[in-house]
Design a protein that fits this description.
Its EC number is 5.2.1.8. This protein is of the alpha+beta class. The chain is 55% helix and 13% strand. The strands form two sheets. Strands 4-3-6-5 form a four-stranded antiparallel β-sheet, with helices on both faces. A two-stranded antiparallel sheet has the order 1-2.
């Protein structure tokens, strides 16, 4: 029995010694150990972003030591209680938790060519020109009325002379595209204000809209063309469809969380 105990003790000592050799301590900072495994991991992570000529284990170890010293000083100063720091910590935890919960679902997202075709049928890419009459984000009644009246006046001229669109855009538009006759080129629907896209959706070439309001002001829009699905930037639209599917997963995730939470909203304060 005594012999067996000695053998077992020897094996345990040998095992712990072997483990220690496998992951030795490369530095100690005020009693806090930095092990070789952490040094190697950090070193290889740095190599992914910086040339190996610029990264050495000495430099990485110095960074780790500085990090330990900085963290120790922050704890001593009780920065974890500081409202600004706590907010940043909350932001990190928020994103980390979402990533942990949703990563398995997001990895299952697949975007196929039929997915892209289906999306593009609903949101085709238009080439348009516009004449913009700007108003502030929160205009007063007088400013809003003046911009609308000017837009209606120009629109009245366009109904008589639709070919004068570029000329009138150059003269009246308050957009950076004015020198080009208001031409914005082809734009995916996601890059247009929802009201702007709604006004041109389904319209044919040379159609001119009556003044429509967006957050930028009043627009008179002329449709210059519609891009064929065969000519689109396929990678861009796959990304757009992917984002749509990702957003649907996020919406469902928070819907599930809200269903389990007790939430009260004072809607009077939202007015």
């Amino acid at each position: 029995m005594f012999k067996n105990t000695l053998v077992l003790t020897s094996l345990l000592l040998l095992s712990s010694t072997t483990f220690a050799v496998k992951d030795p301590v490369v530095a100690v900072v005020d009693g806090i150990k930095i092990k070789k495994s952490e040094l190697d991991k950090t070193y290889h992570e740095n190599l992914m972003f910086v040339s190996d000529k610029m990264v050495t284990k000495d430099k990485v170890l110095n960074d780790l030591i500085n990090r330990r010293l900085g963290i120790k000083r922050a704890k001593k100063a009780k920065l974890d209680k500081d409202p600004i720091v706590r907010k940043k910590m909350d932001d990190i935890m928020y994103h980390a938790q979402i990533s942990k919960d949703l990563e398995p679902r997001l990895k299952k997202i697949v975007v196929t060519e039929p997915d892209v075709d289906k999306y593009y049928k609903s949101f085709p890419e238009y080439r348009t020109a516009h004449i913009l009459f700007r108003v502030r984000t929160k205009p007063d009644e007088e400013e809003n009325r003046a911009a609308l009246n000017q837009a209606l006046k120009v629109y009245s001229s366009l109904k008589k002379k639709p070919d004068a669109f570029a000329e009138l855009a150059n003269k009246f538009s308050q957009s950076s595209t004015a020198p080009n006759g208001g031409d914005m080129g082809f734009q995916p629907a996601i890059r247009l204000a929802p009201e702007y896209f709604k006004a041109i959706k389904g319209k044919k070439k040379d159609h001119i809209t009556s003044p429509i309001k967006t957050q930028f002001g009043y627009h008179i829009i002329k449709v210059l063309g519609v891009k064929s699905v065969k000519s689109i930037n396929n990678a861009l639209y796959k990304k757009i469809v992917y984002d749509k599917k990702r957003d649907a997963i996020l919406d469902n995730y928070f819907r599930e969380l809200r269903a389990k939470a007790n939430i009260k909203i004072n809607k009077q304060l939202l007015k």
